[in-house]
Amino acid sequence: MLKLFKITAILEGISYLVLFANMLIVKPTNLDLYKTLLYPIGMAHGVLFIGYVVLAVLLKFQLNWNYQKLGIILGASLLPFATFWVEKKYL
Fold it and tell me: Which of 13, 31, 45, 83 is deepest in the core (most CB within 10 A)?
């Protein structure tokens, strides 16, 4: 399950950055393309985010993480590039 969590962490971080790129780069230049890309990118990011949180909680009990480590790992899902850092440092 740890390998699945590592993959999910990387994919969640990538989807977060792609969502930001869509918002910051595509939206000002092409509003139609922005609206077309928003739903699939947002849905993928939402599913990956939920998977990240669920897997983190499951791994907390499986690997006996303390609540501080779980908090850092869950908090990293809210910051860009932080899931990559968590994957390297904590996993």
Answer: 83
3-state helix, strand, coil in the chain (%, to 5): 85, 0, 15
Q: What is the pTM of this model?
A: 0.87
Say yes or no to pLDDT of 90 above 80: no
43-64 pLDDT, tens digit each = 999 999 999 999 999 999 999 9
What is the phi-psi region of residue 65: left when phi exceeds 0, alpha when psi lies from -120 to 50, beta otherwise? beta
What letter would DSSP give residue 79?
Answer: S
Give dist(CA 81, CA 83) in Å, integer.
6
Q: How long a stretch of residues is the chain?
A: 91
User: What DSSP state is assigned to residue 72?
Assistant: H
